[in-house]
Amino acid sequence: MSNYHIKHLEEYYQVYRKSVRNPEVFWEEIAEEHFMWRKKWDNVLSWDFTKPEVKWFEGGQLNITENCIDRHLHIRGDKTAIIFEPNNPEEEAQHISYHDLHEKVCRFANVLKEQGIQKGDRVCIYLPMIPELAISVLACARIGAIHSVVFAGFSSTALSTRINDATCKMVITSDGSYRGAKTIDLKGIVDEALKDCTCVESVLVAKRINTEIHMEKGRDHWLQPLLDEAYTDCVPEIMNAEDPLFILYTSGSTGKPKGMVHSTAGYMVYTAYTFKNVFQYLENDVYWCTADIGWITGHSYIVYGPLCNGATTVMFEGVPSYPDYGRFWEIVEKHKVNQFYTAPTAIRALAKEGVEHLEKYDLSSIKVLGTVGEPINEEAWHWYDDNVGKRKAPIVDTWWQTETGGMMITPIPFATPTKPTYATLPFIGIQPALMDENGHEIKGNQVDGRLCIKFPWPSMARTIWGNHQRYKDTYFSAYENKYFTGDGALRDEVGYYRITGRVDDVIIVSGHNLGTAPIEDAINEHPAVAESAIVGFPHDIKGNALYGYVTLKESGEGRNHDNLRKEINQIITEQIGPIAKLDKVQFTNGLPKTRSGKIMRRILRKIAGKDISNLGDTSTLLNPEVVQDIIDNAL
Ligand code: WTA
């Protein structure tokens, strides 16, 4: 029996038990047999959740790009590593073989070095979904630079905050990007952001949309001429197992975004191992994850996990609605996609457009379907199962987080019987716990509580960049000796988990995590606004949408509310990005507050969700009279 590739349910239980009873022996075997190391580790695991400190494979040395690229060259050098499918279906797809990828990554790595980037330096990557994105990520890893990819839908303010937080020395971007029928001036956004960043010494610019752009002398360089001149081989930097591989920002309920730091070896081992099993990837399969590499799903399951397994991974530049709602299925047919991984929000948007878009295409290549990012509702699950998988392709509902690096609770297809809306069983090595409000673990089945993880796993984030205390406070302080996820979950009679959603002030809109505080801060910058509170409310396609309660200063009275709504969304777009725009804005005379001055979001959430039959205890409110007023004027 191979522990690396699990095929049956009994095998899952057997391997799971082994991984939990003797984690060090288990992970040592996986790491030793399936990866390439320059030096073996001295110690498989050391950990202390009180500090918190976790180290996997300490003393080991490696380079992750040797695992993702070099070691495949002699066995599958001509195999396609990346299929690039452009935004415009008329433009030809590109097939990048492992040989090509090696050369491209090496050239890029040499350019980085020539530009003065060294091991440990931070490089910000702000690119659309074009091959340069995956290549630049790997080029950083090749030379030991820490990449910080920022999703190219974020605004200049959001970008500069992230560049400054990690003191990035370089930004890699493009002249612009295509998004359906639109083009976006990415370089303009970077120029704007860099007005506030003194740490950036150089900017590399890929050409994508061929527009005239401003190039700052001495700072900005076109990428292609540099690549053309670069040497085609680059000796990989030898990294320690615990050296940081990348920083990726995620929203918290308060404060600025958290730069989650992932380390090299544990991340590699876990993302590769989960990829193999959760998608049951076989050598000739074509795998497609529709996420953007700007999110953790893209890092782990477009780039590192698939490439580590020598897979063929599709990168799609466009959107599901362009040129029409059949685009995903056209791509599935065209590239004969075997594993398809997307988000519930995309499934709901496509379901709404009707099955005629699907019926035109041959989807018979599909073997496994996956979802990620938010709870999937039953209707969407069945639509996906009936129409895309034709009830033959198991759906893997994968629960995990930016912080966890890899999938944590998920079925293994063809092994774990699926159940709609359930992420089912913990993956190998993962030890979940449900906690009650008093901090006790809830044992047994048919229970619900707050989801924690009791034991370290290889790909957990090691810290928050520049703020270890915040890492401790956010994840290791709510429950003693446990990692707290921020999610609620229930466990059914057979031990399957269903994630019920966030229990903190993070709202997931179209699969994107948004913290309420940064949005409120943005709104409060409007001169007419006194204060504001944001809550989520159920939305058919986005899962949740944002509802803002805004109290105006006196000077705001008598102003045109429609204009104010537009201005508020404009500020949010500038400060964060269009993904954080409010669907509804209600102007209120006040916000319900506790005597200690805290906004009672629970009440606001109920009103936004049109669920006012039981508002719970309002006796502790300082100003109960505003509640009725808000109800009367609710949108
Ligand atoms: C939510 C995405 C239910 C959850 C990989 C988590 C899910 C947050 C699922 C992390 C799922 C993710 N079912 N909820 N299958 N997957 N979530 O950091 O609330 O962007 O805490 O990572 O998304 O989002 P993040």
Describe this structure in words.
This protein has 635 residues and is α/β, with parallel strands linked by helices. It has a domain at 509-632: ANL, C-terminal domain (GMP Synthetase, Chain A, domain 3), CATH 3.30.300. Helices cover 31% and strands 24% of the residues. The chain is built from 20 helices and 31 strands. The strands form 8 sheets. An 8-stranded mixed β-sheet has the order 12-11-8-6-7-14-15-24, sandwiched between helices. Helix 5 crosses helix 9 (223-229), helix 7 (156-165) crosses helix 8 and helix 13 (344-352) crosses helix 15 (378-388). The protein is globular. It starts with 8 loop residues before the first helix and ends with a helix. The protein binds 5'-O-[(S)-ethoxy(hydroxy)phosphoryl]adenosine (WTA). The site of 5'-O-[(S)-ethoxy(hydroxy)phosphoryl]adenosine has 22 residues, from helix 11, strand 20, strand 25 and strand 26.
